[in-house]
Amino acid sequence: MNRTPADIKAVCLSLAGFVALWSLCAWLGDDPAVLPGPVAVWRIFLQETTSGELPHHFLATLLRVLAAFALAMGVGMVLGIAMGASVRINRWLSTWVTLLLNIPALVVIVLCYLWIGLNEVAAITAVALNKTAMVAVSLREGMHALDPKVRDMVQVFRMTPMARLRYIMLPQLWPYIAASVRNGLAIIWKIVLVVEFLGRNNGIGFQIHLYFQLFETGYVLAYALSFVAFMLLLELTLIGAIEARATRWRLSTIAQKS
Fold first, then answer.
1. Distance separating alpha carbons of residues 76 and 3, to the nearest angstrom
2. Count of the separate structural domains present in the chain
3. Which CA distances in Å does 177 have to 17, 77, 140, 171, 235?
4. Which one of 69, 121, 127, 257 counts the least CB within 10 Å of its CB?
5. Helices in the chain by DSSP H: which ranges?
6. Does residue 17 form part of some domain?
7. Which tops the pLDDT comparison, 212 or 153?
8. 160-174 pLDDT, tens digit each
9. Is residue 25 part of a domain?
């Protein structure tokens, strides 16, 4: 949906409230080593940005997030649509998907590092595997929710598979795709941090691990909040646009019926 001035005002006030609560907690604790205030963290952020350290590690994390996200969404959508369209495929693959859903992300990460090695392929594979099953389940349920009347129309007009996918299935699956995008980005970047924490030599997770060992809370917050701020900006812009696109056809249908 399009952001109205009231929505933007609410977001700004909510963020201001978060900063005010953070400032209050830091003031009451009166121990910068445990919880530094927003001003102290901002200074660290500017220092690390100016030195080039934060942009370097931020970009490394962002590239891993994008690669794992693209892989998980691509494979997950294919699996989900196939499982939703075919009872036989769903019967054979549903157990595998359930198995992937219930294996802890940490186990998948460790196994990928053991089997593939401490490299980028293992890191991206581990992250993608943890999200692929979620996307597949979401798209499978979306396929099951398709309007049966539309399916009958497809048979009557004898539409080709590509036309059916483009004009019939994808418009109805957009809400499920949008939900997968939103949840996927939120989950993937958190798993990427764990991957970097355990076995990479750059990235936000690597820096958090480094400053955790040095008991530098301010640096941990500066690096973590930098990516959180980026994800919030992404949520308010790109993901919001995708969500608007996902619900546009439904709103048009409701308007025509009324």
1. 30
2. 1
3. 32, 8, 11, 10, 15
4. 257
5. 5-29, 38-51, 53-85, 87-102, 105-116, 120-144, 148-157, 161-163, 170-199, 204-213, 217-234, 240-257
6. no
7. 212
8. 777 777 777 777 788
9. no
